[in-house]
Amino acid sequence: MEGFAYAKINLTLEILSKEGKFHTIKSIFQKIGLYDLIRIKVGSKDRIYFTEPIRKSTSTVHRAVELFRKETSINKNLDISIEKHISMGAGLGGGSSDAATTLILLNKLFNNALSIDTLITLGAEIGKDVPFFLSNYSTALVTHFGEIVAKIPPLKEIHIVLVHPLFHHKTEKMYQMFDIFGRFSQGTYTEDLIKLIEDRNYSTNDIERFLYNDFEVMLLSVDSDFSKFKNFIEKATEKTFHLTGSGSTIFCVCESENEASEIAKTLRKLNFNVSVAKAI
User: Which residues contact 52 (CB under 8 A, 6 or more apart)?
Assistant: First the structure.
């Protein structure tokens, strides 16, 4: 049994407040056609294999298996392989999507032993944005700590170029940095973009005007390396790029597949690690 663990980008990411040790957010998540491929079957012994080096026993896939077994008391040996294409520490939700897809595949493998509500509860224990990946939503409003997900109309066909730098960002450390240097938002960027999407009468350029990320605003003011990286990309392509999640990947939106391909070609000639995907 196999499934695609799709990545996401944040069209907006506004940090509203801090409650205890967690931050409340208002964000629009967009699923994109970049994915990890996960295969699961009953095996002669337990094996979880990644095509990229992942810290053993602490990955989100390991955690998903652990929670599923605890909830169902199903303890058959599992052979799981994860073909990685989503960069780690990139703000693309790869780990959370892997966990969600693992839970979905395990549930199918064992005759839907758990309800979707139970899967969502388990997913939220692994990561606050796992519930989004357990939904069937392409585009969603994500609020509170990231675990509350509401459907909004899917985007029209938009092509996306993603640039993956050599450096990576850990979400926990980015929030710690935000506590020192960041400023809370009011959620208005997200609300305005939702109104535009719901109107359905928009172009890619219209979407572009409402893209916003509080982490990006912070990094541009305190991290000269990030600023230089982003500025170089934008100068080389004559496009505006945006941070997704807590980074480190940046992306631009394009009207056509041809435009996205040309931008990707330009950046690959400069030896950048680039992906091209569509909003799905």
Answer: 84, 88
